[in-house]
Write the C-alpha cells for this entry.
Amino acid sequence: MPLYRKFRAMQRIGLTLLILLLGACATTRIAPPDQPSAARTERMNDVAFYALSLADTPYRYGGNSGEIGFDCSGFVQHVYQNTLGIKLPRTSAEMSRVGGEAEVSQLRPGDLVFFNTRKQPFSHVGIYVGEERFVHSPSSGKAIMVVSMREKYWRNRYNGARRIAAMPQAGGDNQPLSNRF
C-alpha cells in the first residue's frame, strides 16, 4: 500500500477516534420530552460518523462511490444508503423535498443542510455533524471536508434543512424516498 494511502487511512482512523473520545467526554443529561429517542439519536450519530469517515475522498462530478469520488448529492445518498438503508433521491434539489423541515436552531447530527451555491436554491447539500458544522463534498479539486456554517460564504447561502426519518425503508425494496410518498 502506498505511503499516502496509509497516511489517509490513519487520518480517518484518528478523526473517528477523536470524535468518539470527545463524545465520551460529554456530560449526561436528561432530555426534555421534545428531544429524539436515544435509538434515533444513535442512528443519526452513525450517519454523521460514517460521513466523517469519508473525509479526504475526492470530489467527482456525478460520483457516488468511495472508489471514484463523490459529488455533494452522491455523497449524501451514499451515506444514508450505507448507514440506514435509506435511498434518497439523486439530486440536492430533490432531496430538499424529502423528510421534514428542521429549523437551524434545532439542527441535529444527520440532518441535511442545503445551500444556494450555483445561483439556484438547494443546489448544494451536506450532512450536519453538530456544533454548527457540516460535512460535504465541495467541488472539483477538493475532497470531502467539514466546514463551519458560521463562515460567511455558507451563512449567506443557507437555504434550509431537512430531517430524514432514521428508520430503514419497510420491505427493503430500495425505492427512492421521493417515490414512496
Q: What stands out?
A: DSSP finds five helices and eight strands in the chain. The two ends are 46 Å apart (CA to CA). Strands lie at 64-65, 69-70, 100-101, 112-115, 124-130, 133-136, 145-148, 158-163.
